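Retro notes, structure queue

What went well: the backlog is down to a handful. What didn't: a couple of records were mislabeled last round, so from now on we paste the full input next to the output in the thread. Example, using Membrane bound O-acyltransferase domain containing 2 from Athene cunicularia:
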Amino acid sequence: MQVNFVVCQLFALLAAIWFRTYLHSSKTSPFIRHVVATLLGLYLALFCFGWYALHFVIQSGISYYIMIIIGVENMHKYCFVFALGYLTVCQITRVYIFDYGQYSADFSGPMMIITQKITSLAFEIHDGMFRKNEDLTPSQRCLAVRRMPSLLEYLSYNCNFMGILAGPLCSYKDYITFIEGRSYQLQQSEANGKEDTKYEQTDPSPNIAVAQKLLICGLSLLFHMTITKTLPVEYNIDDNFRATASWPVRFFYLYVSLMAARPKYYFAWTLADAINNAAGFGFRGYDKNGVTHWDLISNLRIQQIEFSTSFKMFLDNWNIQTALWLKRVCYERATFSPTIQTFILSAIWHGVYPGYYLTFLTGVLMTLAARAIRNNIRHYFVESPAVKLCYDIITWMATQLAISYTVVPFVLLSVKPSFTFYSSCYFCLHIASILVLLILPLKRTQKGSKKHESVQPVWSKKLEEENLLQKNSYSTTNNSFSQKQEITCRYQALKQ
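Corresponding output:
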């Protein structure tokens, strides 16, 4: 099945190049582009998953019917419950009836992406067609959909060949803008907040971006096939290893084994991003110098992941589109305990393996404890560059260790091996997190709230400043729909 997946994705890459060349929006109507994208997507799903692919159509079809008959006031709730419930039922049958612990027929993977799209669009339509504009956050206002999509548009959004196998999630407005081929424009923002005149730009080429991402895919695949297999995560619970290895050796192996488990995700998500880019989708905009950036729907930032100095920094750069989905449909709308609700939703969405729930429950503790530590002590270590560098190195080591400790059950899947690992560590980080939460207040101290709001380590500060500048100045605009992600709406948010 993994071979089928890679073959299908490589076929999708070639199809994407053909799609952009011969079915470009300047040559073909949106109707034809929708039809071809949908049919190719369903064909790939059928080839990769057989008749399990019918679940994709069934889930999308019933969700669309719910949207039509329920109405815009409550359809987001019904769509959310149905889509997540249908996904959960499919995951239960796959895991506990067919092949526990195996990924040979993991048709629930594409369903996870479709569930994100169904629920995201339902909330976006609810925001655009029912809620008052002044009640929306800036990001919700940017993403709000003002008309009901047709069935073809809905199926194309959910099941297009570019994202049906590995995503990533994108907003409905971004996808429709791409299909309809609206002009790319440059919008520069002046220091006083006013916008310069917008003028049409030529259709940018994604070739360089695609080549760079394919290179990353090749390196990630090579690492996975050579190094990853020599560093199994399961060795962390090997009886002989636990009995003979010292604590420093055990923690070092914990870190390198979990780091070695990441390249397969780098490969899958970067290849999916390259496929979308090859089709012409994923252009975020030009910066003030006219440089193109193809990361509108990118799902990870490898450098920031490997050099994260906080739990939040890691989560913000890992599976980015899923993090945005959790924020938009849960965190921003939760009436109480948004952090806990968001982690629970994330666990349910990921599947029914007990290890997922252990990971995300542990993640709640780690996130709250890390936030408390950062808010209470960080401002003491940022005055001197040398002290700040030492602080960044220590927090990098602590973050990587905490991340590795947290995600072990996610890889091991079952309860027994997960508790074997945690008990062999005497639940040390769980206990430490609880003690931190009992001793330190969660809210930022007065001194810390007034100064030093930056979250970047010393070695990545310049890069992150450039990214922030780009996020404030990029945008791709149009008349009735706007190709803007939440990150491109932040400039407008600052003005309000």
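Agreed that this is the format going forward. Reviewer comment attached to the example: Strands lie at 185-186, 199-200, 285-286, 292-293.
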